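User: Just a sanity check before I run the rest of the batch. Below are the structure tokens for the first item. I only need the designed sequence back.
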């Protein structure tokens, strides 16, 4: 799996514009939304990531400095994403600890990015919140009855039946 390409897919699905900046090797994936701008770097190894992340970040920020200065409030939401596919258990914590460094950009840093699910999970902080309620097998009337414990049974039955809204309102307004 190509981490850069899959990251672009995930970021686009999350509403970002993406484009590669080929002024460095490997290319950096740039991404931007109405409120966030960022740069995704893919490294060949965890050691390379740890040894060169600062220079990589500095290089991309220097190149994009004029645009970042003109970005206004968005300049406060600049992300650097540092990823590698290498399984590096001995360096994993060091890589993840980069996220605690808030100098110049906010950071996401991970090793062992090997699947589409890994890419999706690592970029989740940049994605909008998604709720996926499981309603396909649920009877809405039963769900409503279970949740509406404070509503009189007669009113709930009337609401779920075919009474007019005025009749339901009358039931709700009458003393029980």
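Assistant: Here's the designed sequence for the first item:
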């Amino acid at each position: 799996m190509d981490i850069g390409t899959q990251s672009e897919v995930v970021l686009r699905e999350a509403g970002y514009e993406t484009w590669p900046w080929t002024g460095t090797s490997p290319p950096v994936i740039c991404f931007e939304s109405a409120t966030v701008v960022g740069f995704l770097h893919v490294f060949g190894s965890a050691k390379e990531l740890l040894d060169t992340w600062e220079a990589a970040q500095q290089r991309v920020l220097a190149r994009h400095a004029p645009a970042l200065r003109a970005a206004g409030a968005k300049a406060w939401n600049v992300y650097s994403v540092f990823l590698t596919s290498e399984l590096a258990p001995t360096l994993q914590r060091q890589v993840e600890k980069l996220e605690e460094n808030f100098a110049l950009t906010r950071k996401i840093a991970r090793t062992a990015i090997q699947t589409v699910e890994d890419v999706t999970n690592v970029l989740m902080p940049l994605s909008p919140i998604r709720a996926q309620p499981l309603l396909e097998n649920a009877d809405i009337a039963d769900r409503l009855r279970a949740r509406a414990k404070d509503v009189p049974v007669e009113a709930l039955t009337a609401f779920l039946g075919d009474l007019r809204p005025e009749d339901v309102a009358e039931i709700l307004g009458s003393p029980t």
